[in-house]
Amino acid sequence: MQARVALVTGGTGGIGSSILLKLASMGHKVATNYRDEGKARAWQTAMKAAGVDVALAHGDVSSAESAESMVRDLERQLGPIDILVNNAGITRDTTFHKMTPTQWNDVIATNLGSCYNVTRPVIEGMRERKWGRIIQISSINGQKGQYGQANYAAAKAGMHGFTISLAQENARFGITVNTVSPGYIGTDMVMAVPEEVRNKIVAQIPTGRLGTPEEIAYAVSFFIPDEAAWITGANLSANGGQYMGW
Question: Could you tell me if 169 and 177 are in contact, meaning their C-beta atoms sit under 8 angstroms apart?
Fold first, then answer.
């Protein structure tokens, strides 16, 4: 397929980095945002050592103004964005009766509000060019819920509602919109969990192991080729069989 420009928000994390590597291997130009420039530049150097040149732009995806500025900066660097992966996300876990307004609002703004903030500046161009791929990275916990994650589960479930509405609005413009819902992945964050807790998580997964960031990147890549043009509004669960819905 034709080489495109792909933006993966939150790309400096474990899953985001793998998605960028996968899309670059497919021949696409890749980009992400950052908030901490020092960390981002060090990460960019490591990615270059791995053979991938990732364009960077400062951007807080929880802010509509910052997100639009970031998109315009990357378009000046690489050209129009035709592939968008809304991957940025945070957690602020606690049981709901202890949850502060800040813990609620920060997660909703970053995980769900970012879908509007980043997609809005790119959607008009996709519609004009009659081609686009938009993919949300949701979560198994957006499907089944999770104790102590009312904010996170609400945001992640909302991401798929966003997907299916946007898919209906833009199908006739050659734009597909889909969701990938990962289960527990062996990122640095998950591996930092105490071993006995990780073992309890793995015991609930039929495949008997955590997923890998590369497996989530493959799931994302499935939706991008021209051969996937008839798949839109879908949610691809990638969780080792831990939650099976249809």
Answer: no
Respond yes or no: is residue 34 known to be catalytic. Answer: no
Contact present, 236 and 200 (Cβ < 8 Å):
no
Question: For the whole prediction, is pTM greater than 0.90?
Answer: yes
> What's the chain's Rg over C-alpha atoms?
17
Task: List the structure tokens of 2.
Answer: 């034709």
User: For the domain 5-234, what is the CATH code?
Assistant: 3.40.50.720
Catalytic residue among 116, 152, 184, 218: 152
- In tens, the pLDDT along 122-167 reads 999 999 999 999 999 999 999 999 999 999 999 999 999 999 999 9
Contact 181, 239 (CB under 8 A): yes
Confidence at 188, pLDDT banded by 50, 70, 90: confident
DSSP 72-100: HHHHHHH----EEEE---------GGG--
